[in-house]
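Hi R.,

As promised on Friday, here is the backbone we talked about, encoded as structure tokens. Could you run it through your design pipeline when you get a chance and send me back a sequence?
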């Protein structure tokens, strides 16, 4: 007798697989509580086990409830207990400094407010973020890792670059965009070549508030292929300095843009410059993309380069409108000759020519100096 349902052996195998995954996740939590592994290792173990479970179910992703429950267990566990330090063991200089700082703070007249550090695992998107990062391109994952490292103390990272002998020549104010993964202002990079002075930082203190700003850089926008190549080469060197693994990606993107410059006529090179800005802006905002993910950027190519693109069509329409308006008489009030001024009877128009909403010209030939009934040309025509 046939039976369409799963056999007892199949049910037992599926149950065993699920139990194994749950046991591995629970073991990761217990190992973190005991201090044998770090929290990062525990989270990665849980995420990898659950991703493995998804792959076994035909790749269908489940909800975030399971991983969120394990993350909550890790949060509730707090920091793992540290082994008591035996007498005679060495204490790190950093720990000694923290201890001394705490002692000095206790004796201060006013207690210093301590900033509460929020656990990122409690963010609403934390569960899906852990699963997504396991599927990212390795170079994207490495970029995100370095952005987090630099972001821990961005000011220190910039100071270290300023004192590094291997750091490339680059506008100081643009290093923030480099280290945070945002789009670099190539116009600023290009303008820096023509700025003779250094980017001096000006600071002013108002009470307990310190305001810092830099002297304005002369505005100079990139308008040609050669100017873009110069700025892009400098930007590529700076990005590679902070993210060495992106060298191949940057080189491939540069060759792609150079190919577009060669394929399009010089009068429309401004479209390529706009397209490049839009691409780098999107990649800097959507942290899951590479500059070479051209399929994800196809809509921008249509919008900024193709003749039917929204930005191109809008620019062409504006140019046509401005050209037509320049050929029209200035002011809509001068389209028609004043009837009262041309009238043979009555007092004529009470307004001066400069104040009248209509033109004080002949209604027949459009010339000034005579009215319709005085027009010689009109009489000849009749």
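Update: got your reply. Pasting your designed sequence below so it's all in one thread:
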């Amino acid at each position: 007798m046939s039976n369409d349902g799963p056999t007892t052996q199949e049910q037992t195998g599926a149950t065993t697989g699920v139990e194994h995954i749950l046991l591995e996740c629970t073991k990761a939590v217990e190992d973190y509580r005991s201090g044998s592994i770090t929290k990062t290792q525990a989270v990665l173990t849980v995420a990898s086990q659950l991703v493995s479970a998804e792959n076994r179910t035909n790749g269908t992703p489940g909800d975030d409830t399971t991983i969120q429950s394990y993350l909550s267990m890790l949060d509730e566990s707090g920091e793992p207990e540290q082994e008591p330090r035996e007498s005679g063991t060495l204490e790190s200089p950093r720990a000694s400094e923290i201890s001394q700082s705490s002692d000095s703070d206790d004796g201060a007249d006013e207690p210093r407010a301590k900033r509460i550090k929020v656990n990122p695992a409690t963010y609403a998107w934390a569960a899906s973020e852990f699963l997504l990062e396991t599927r990212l391109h390795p170079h994207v994952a490495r970029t995100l890792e370095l952005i987090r490292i630099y972001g821990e103390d961005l000011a220190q990272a910039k100071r270290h670059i300023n004192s590094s002998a291997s750091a490339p020549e680059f506008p100081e104010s643009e290093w923030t965009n480099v280290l945070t993964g945002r789009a670099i202002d190539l116009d600023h990079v290009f303008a820096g070549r023509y700025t003779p002075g250094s980017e001096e930082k000006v600071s002013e203190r108002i009470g307990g508030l310190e305001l810092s700003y830099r002297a304005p850089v002369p505005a100079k926008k990139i308008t040609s292929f050669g100017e873009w190549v110069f700025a892009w080469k400098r930007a590529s060197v700076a990005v590679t300095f902070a993210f060495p693994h992106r060298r191949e990606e940057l080189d491939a993107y540069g060759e792609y843009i150079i190919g577009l410059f060669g394929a399009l006529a010089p009068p429309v090179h401004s479209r390529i410059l706009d397209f490049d800005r839009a691409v780098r802006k999107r990649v800097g905002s959507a942290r899951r993309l590479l500059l070479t993910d051209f399929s994800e950027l196809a809509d921008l190519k249509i919008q900024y380069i193709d003749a039917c693109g929204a930005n191109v069509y809008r620019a062409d329409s504006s140019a046509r409108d401005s050209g037509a308006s320049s050929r029209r008489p200035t002011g809509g009030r001068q389209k028609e000759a004043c009837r009262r001024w041309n009238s043979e009877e009555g007092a004529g128009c009470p307004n001066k020519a400069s104040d009248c909403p209509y033109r004080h010209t002949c209604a027949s030939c459009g010339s000034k100096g005579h009215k319709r009934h005085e027009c010689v040309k009109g009489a000849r025509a009749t």
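One thing I noticed while checking it: DSSP finds 16 helices and two strands in the chain.

Thanks again,
M.
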